[in-house]
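#struct-queue
[09:14] JT: dropping the first one here, sequence first, then the structure tokens:
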Amino acid sequence: MQYRVTNILLVCSLYDSFILEEDGQLYERLYSEHQNLNLVTVPKLVKVSSGRAALDILRSDGHEIDLVITTLNPGDMHARELAESVRRSGNDLPVVLLTYDERGLNQMAARHDLSMFEKVFLWQGDFRILIAIVKFIEDRRNVAHDSATVGVQSIILIEDAVYFYSSYLPIVYGQLLHHSLSLISESVNASQRFLRLRARPKILLYSNFEDAWEAFQTHHSTILGVISDINFPCGGVQDPEAGLRFTSRVKQVNPDIPVLLQSNDEEMREKATQAGASFLHKASPTLLKELQFFMKRYFSFGDFVFTLPDGTEVNRAESLHDFEKKIMDVPDDSIRFHGLRNHFSNWLKARTEFWLAHKFRSRRNESFRDAEEMRQYMLACIREWKRERKRGKVVDFNPEFFDRGSFARIGQGSLGGKARGLGFVVSLLNKFDLSETIPGVDVFVPEAVVVATDCFDQFLDDNELREFALRCDDDSELYDRFLRGRFPDEIQEQLLAFIDKANYPLAVRSSSLLEDSRYLPFAGVYDTVMLANNSEVSEERRQQFMAAIKRVYASTFTVQSKAYFKSTPYRLEEEKMAVIIQKLVGRVHGRRFYPDFAGVMRTYNYYPRHPMKAEDGIASVALGLGESVVGGNQVIQFCPKYPKHSTQFADNADLIRNSQTSFFALTLCEEEGDKGMLSLTRCELEEAQEDGTLHSLASTYSPQNDRLYEGTAREGPRVVTFAPILKSGIFPLPEILQLISDMGEWSMNSPVEIEFAVNLHRGQIHEFGFLQMRPMVAGHELEELDFAEVPESQILIRSGRVLGNAVIDDIHDIVFADPASFERSKSHLAAHEFGLFNAELGKEGRPYVALGLGRWGTADSWLGIPVSWDQVSGVRVFVEVGLKDISVEPSQGSHFFHNLSCFGNGYFTIDHRRDNEWVDWDWLRDQTPHKKRQFTTHLRFEQPLITKMNGQSSEGCICKPAED
């Protein structure tokens, strides 16, 4: 291998960098593979958070960068500008684009030439794509030399879809690495593993016929096999049978070369077989497993071994923890033997423990009086490393060191999207001490343990659940099978060690690969289980705890989850579930458990009102648990920059009519069989007054003079206004939200959404629990659209509060609930009818407009239509029409709103009290229904319902179809 990537310049936001380093374990995977290939170098990351900083490094003399990996928007310039700047400098440096946003990538590819990039890849939550990128670059640069000189074999991969090859490459490289490692004898010690045992086959990725065939002709004698799509470009145009013709040519040269063809068209299977190739259907629910099987069939690290100078093995260590224990008893001769040859530091370096490796190697061996002094020095270094490793980082779970503020992991897989965000917040709070900035408030992330995704894989495989779960369509049977499953002994031992130590209520929450990532809208799809965790019977607590984790695992495969996945470009087979086990923020009030208040902060406000700007953000808060906010119930909304400036309600009567009248708490159930379990319960404001939590959040209304007075000292109706906090400042909520919002946006290079919960303590330190932070989608409103020329008579729906920026001209269907027949007490039936229409239209592949009354996706059926996302997954444009007696504000803090904004759906809010907002109900009722149910009606038109949305002015309209 002549060209080696030893220094990678990673150009991305701090958040993206955190994902790769803390969650992805990039170092460990990269170094583990490289130690089997050479003894000389291992890749190192140089991280910057702006394009300008990257160019400065490339111009300097101190860095010899071999590869640049950039995200789509590294901060101060577009990735394309960065790549072009590198090219103009005359540098032959490969620049790779790694993006989350497939939609944005497609838009850019349609307008611009992307040849300035060596290749474009799509981040889909699998950290192995970074390993694949490095190997892809090395293989492309080295194939000519290595094939010609030592006969290194190659696999040709032909795929023009970025999504698919970004999924394939990590799998292919993973299989090759596994094969290489399997050839290493278990008796070989650590130092010998650094020798080159064999040359790994290379992967040659191409996206068109000509490039792939040129590579085959050049390296045909060393081609191990071909994996190819069938439909890809040939001669500059898309050729639906290019893969078949490529196979035919390959077989003419060498009929023994294995070829795997893939297609979305099942009819291609016979043609592939006739061409002498294997076939995979891209829509197969087990596509990745079948791909792995093909590679294993057709394309025929490790312990530290303590030895004596004569080669006799005396012990071996599987991990650093094991190393710490084993080194205490290893003979002095073995310590001297390995120490003199730097075997210890080399092994640590390969496991990415660079600080510890440097400490081991920084003291010369001859400076030790004897082997025992060397042994004690290494043990002292390991103890120091363990202390430093825990500070503000995600650490391996150890019950001896787990305490308040700890954030630990069980397993070695991914943390999942939600836990990544939490881990990133832990690192931020460790870097920026907020105790002096915000005195009197403890801003913290509640202690948590994350069960990583590899534990999920082990659980599925050991209990033979994977294929069953993918095909099961009965949720009851699904949960039953999962609850009967057993965890591997090592994982169960760690889980039980945690629950035996934890003596507080817990939330067992999902954290899948796709949750809470940019452009991956999976908020609220999977289960969260609450545990009181206070049973006096230890075995009972253990069983409830283990069952909670299994329920979260099972929720990955429910009917709802499967329906949800069908509305996304992702495969359920690729989804992996990590689980967050976190201490709940709140206090016990009799049989109720809840925080004083909870909320969601979004740093981009889609519907700002003067003097607010979109960038000032919007916060939604409610008494009790955050279910009121994320569930789309009545809440208080305010801008932290203008906390005293309320534009949410027109007057006191409007405020009283639309304010929070109940709150959510967790109630300890005492029924037989449920003891120790917590259930979500709606409680009345009188109960909060009894608990002493209402006074700091409420005002008292005086009907005699139509005034609201802060607090609850007076007689009169209580109204949740948050006035004691927002106007009198008894708690610095606006200041905290502004500070952490700035931190979040700066570190993620994007608007963010933050979930939090607060415990107020009179005369003591208040607690602000930082529960979640994730990037949110904003800033797509680049082009201002003008529809002022559309006559009012042609407008079906008009709104001054619209989310989206586009002209949509391919919608021919609308499903609506008619206020004339709608009954709020039966809104759940309307939701069911919308689900039926959604399934019917989904089968036909027809996007549609959904016009509903009240709030979409609300948890409170009296506020709107309580649909789940899978019941409206085919909707292109949502319309919310306010109820006559309740003002329905856009539900910016809810999970439903997060999902529709991430998917890029249009979103109209209609208030009948506004002159510039309306729905032409008479016209709708005059049309002939395509299909009608009790509460909902489906209309279909020959001509489209043209939808125009102006993202800059937040205005939009849906036009009546043109007459034939």
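[09:21] JT: and here's the second one, same format:
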Amino acid sequence: MIRSITSYLKNATHLYQASRYLPKYLLSENVKEKQLRENDMLWIAANADDKRCSIVEIQKFIQEEPLLEQSPIRLMDLGNNYFRHINPRKKKTMLQLLDAYIDNLTQEETQLFQDALSIYFDNTYQGKEMENLTCEEKDLPESLLWHIYSLMIFDRLSSHYARYEYLDQFRIIEYFNQRDKQKINRVKYVFTSHPTQPNSLTQLIAISRMLQGIEQNDYKYLKYAAKLFIQSNKQRVFNKVSYIEESLIYHSQYLPNLIKAVAQAYELGLQNPELYFETPGTWLTFDFDNHPGMEIGIMTFTHGLTIDLTIQQYKEYIAEAKLEDNEDFKKILELYQQALDYSKNIRDLSDKFRVKKEISLEEFYQQMPIFNIKKIEDQINQILDHILAKNDDSKEYFIALKLKKLYSIFRLTGVLGQIRLAGEDLTDLNSIKPMIKNIFKEISLLNANGQAADMVIIANFKTQSQYDLVNDLINKYKVQNVEIVPLLETFSSTNNTDSKITMIASSDTRQRDGLILTELRNMREYKRNPEKYIYMGQGITPERGGGPYTLIHTKYQALTRAQRKRHIRTIQGHYFTSEFASEDVAFTFLLNGLSNINYSDDFEPSYEYMDFLFELDNVIGVPQRAMQKTKEYNDLYVKNQVVRTMVESFNFAGSREIARPFESIKNQRAIVQAYCNSDRCSFTHPELAYWDRVPEELINKIATYYYNNHPHMKYMLYMYALMARRCDLDFAKQEVGLDSTNPYFQAIQKGRAALMKILDQLGLGDNSTPMIAIWKQHLGCQLQSMNMEVNQKFSTFRTLNQLQLYQAKKMVKQGILETDVIASQRKLRILQSTLANMTSFAGKG
């Protein structure tokens, strides 16, 4: 006879709920009933004919069952349903992060966080719609703004993990394993600094720690990391950091995760990762192109740091396998220690010269130790080959094989520096600056011990004499194993040297030349020098050649052979502190990017297509560039005190000199121009102007190329469509306060309308399939996200813009009244940091 579990609980166990310990957060009655029903099923199983569990055992199990606690964030969500629209996979990670965060808040802070949840997810504040708030109510307390910032960070991080639904990893790996070796396209990622890092170095450390807690499923550690994150918010100071601080934090974040991501790909079946990945590069502390604060000794410190980080990761694999006492691995560990000692010695030497000022420059050079890293690497490889020769399928064999694969990519140095020098400093060997001579001395000593750098990049390259001078310096100072790479930064420049690589600064010159001319530079250089690899300078946002991953991967379909066969590209600033903040996220980034570089055929631009682009550029690009040189165009932004305040405030932190006064938009750094021309500042863009001048003949050519699935035209149209949607000129006029009577504002307005008409005719309007996907990703949503989630995220984005505009307007008023602006400036920069983290949604591959 099957008895009721409810009766059993009352009569048999005598467990009275009133006498039991009650947890802090209890389940609703409905959930309790669900537990009873589940216990009923257990009772039925215990009384079934096939009795594998006695009544006594099941009774004991039920007696020991604790009440299921409700998490803090779910309790706060009761009656609010904040997360109703969110992708379930993303929601799971977000709730983990939020629970750890709330567990570190006081009761008062928790109440304020409830307000942040309402603003972020419901666009309401204390029961009122955000758009109905008075000016005074929009002046939210700083602590509330930090909660909103934290929500943006958690939203971004949880979005990264939800990307796994987009990743068919085993299909990709199988494709790579079957690919003809002659057809493989390799990637070399180069990590560069970023002048406007939106997160402090301490915040970056805390974010990385939180991700480690999630990936190791360690809530205690996650809670600790969340506490560190909260503390880093409270203590945030918007100051410029030093190069060495950037180097220490950035390399410590991305390099171990990069190694682990490649190891993960190998463990999941990628047989020959070394065929697909080159040794990565870094500009951090190697970039001497007009960077104030650069000094001799920091290259040495970074080289020692990357050796240490790389070897520690290798040691971790040996320790995990418990092979420290194995005779062969003991020899490897002894060799590691020799390299680690060298790493420590050169970092200490750098500190003695730079920080402690205990030795002179000449003593720094004289005391540089002589050490043969290559010999250590060879000895390690010999031991690994000895282990692999046994081919016995043992644990030792598999660890040795993994290390062998990783060595072939990362060696003991992890990354290789790329020295960038200002082209204007390279005119005459007899008048060369002492600093440049000292740079070559330092890198010569380092490379003699074991390769620390592999490239010398000539910024703003113009003449063969610059190339010859660098070659003379390399020969004079006996620098080994480096190649010279001219960096083209103007449309008129070309590379007629015998270099194997040409670098094109697409991210910076995009602000000066526009999309069409920037793309034409790549095609023209490829046509002139088809045998040279093209090294791509690629930024984060769409204004700098980045953008949502669908847009980036569309661009990959339009890469020439010079850009694809050996795909060398920069990964800048907060992009890589986002995409390489954890092993799993880095793995997703690498595999998706690599697959798109290898799936597509090489793009071969025809002269006919290039002539068409030149013709289109003459119609819209030439007047756009002329417009940006006029006083009226400059006045549109510089004389708008709100834009001026946001631009000057935007130049916080980072690796560059303090911001220049905002007197001319064209004289600002390219990344500041990109910020001004975005949906985080002016909501305008010069490349939207003059599309009304495009004749019907050219419109028909655009349509023909697009309908014939021309990969490059598809990328360009996607980019323009996203640009047109992001730039809301009504918002620019009404909220930002741009002068709508300015002739160039009207040119942008008229051109945008004409462009949108062309896009609609091509089926690329806001409701088209490609643009829905790109818009979702731009806002940090998934392809499967419902419209309600997308609309909610856009409302949040718009609310944050309105809040930052309020703080900017308040600062303008305070400046007029000569009152203190410090509190408002902090709030503005918190909001700018929050919105800048939106761009981190855009990456992937």
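[09:30] RK: nice, looked through the second one.
[09:31] RK: The chain has 36 helices and ten strands.
[09:31] JT: good to know. The longest strand covers residues 186-192.
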